[in-house]
Model the fold of this input.
Amino acid sequence: MSRIGKMPIAIPSDVEVVVDGQTVRVKGPKGSLERTLRPNVRVNIEQSRIIVVPVDESGETRAQWGLSRTLVANMVEGVSKGFQRHLELAGVGYRASKQGSKLVLTVGFSHPVEIEPPLGVDFEVPNPTNVFVNGYDKETVGAVAAKVRGVRPPEPYKGKGIHYKGERIIRKVGKTGKK
Done:
């Protein structure tokens, strides 16, 4: 039995959920999301709670049960509160700025790198070494944050690059001098 799949999802007062067969539509103050779930699970709405129920007891169904519940819970949380990823820039001269909606990164290349955010995602740059990626779709926010990090991933010798806040960078020892 899935411990995660069993838990009901509370629907906040400002969120509207519509279930049409296997398609779940969630609309809230931050935006609206839609996802079609696998046929192994069924979604029921009871007393301002969403309950995900497995269709049978096969191994594949049990695997999809917890996943489906988490996907729906992330949709509800995203349209009500939103998601955020925090990136930090480490390195001499590495900085970020925002021009319009675009993120402009100066990270040691001969040219600045510009990243255009997709629909539903925006960048926040409180200071030149911190970047926040905000949005209501957790999957898209994570993908955009990974794209920003991929511009200059942290290197293991000095730790320079773009990394997630709290990410542990495994450091390597550099060359030793001749004896």
User: Anything to note?
Assistant: The CA atoms of residues 1 and 57 lie 9 Å apart. The radius of gyration is 21 Å.
